[in-house]
Amino acid sequence: MTGAPPDETDRRLIAALRENGRASITALSLELGLARGTVRARLERLISDGVIRRFTVDLGVEHAADAVRAVMTIELKGSMTRQVIRTLSAMPEITAIHTTNGAWDLVAEIRAASLPAFDRVLREVRAIPGVSNSQTSLLLDTVRS
Q1: Which among 78, 76, 21 is positioned nearest to 88, based on CA atoms?
Q2: pLDDT in single tens digits along all 145 residues of the chain
Q3: Residues linked to residue 70 through DSSP beta bridges, in sequence order
């Protein structure tokens, strides 16, 4: 990455693209409440800076055998739930976020392309302000979906 790190608007754009990577500039601008030119410029910058490396197809679990998959339970400090969820939502490797009861506040599903990428995601999640503890379990095989 050569430019400035993604800001909140960039993160919202990335999250919208995670939901629909084929969304048009017009659809993205409407969803985000931004001008089309702003969305286009930010998207071009994210691509040129290497934040967005490619647009791809999200395959079902049975077709993504090489992916590292995991479930991370997350304990939060205080009332930072919204901020943590917003930060997690901007991470492309986090495929789902669930609120829960009991000892853990959130459950995040993770899919990374490799173990080094997975390790990076774990470090990034643990560094989010408001995250006080986490526990991660690798998903080895899917026996029923």
Answers
A1: 76
A2: 467 778 888 888 988 888 888 899 999 999 999 999 999 999 999 988 888 887 776 655 544 556 899 999 999 998 889 999 999 998 988 999 999 998 999 999 999 988 999 999 999 999 999 999 999 999 998 887 6
A3: 110, 138
Contact 145, 105 (CB under 8 A): no
pTM of the predicted structure, to 2 decimals: 0.58
| The pair of three-digit structure tokens given for residue 103, joined into one six-digit string | 């000892």
Are 106 and 98 spatial neighbours (Cβ–Cβ below 8 Å)? Answer: yes
User: What letter represents residue 29's amino acid?
Assistant: S
Task: Specify the residue for token string 């934040």.
Answer: 51
Task: Specify the 3-state DSSP secondary structure of 141.
Answer: coil
Residue 5: count other Cβ atoms within 10 Å of its Cβ. 9
The whole-angstrom separation of Cα 122 and Cα 9 is 23
Per-residue CA distances from 4 to 1, 39, 51, 77, 126 (Å): 8, 16, 10, 28, 22
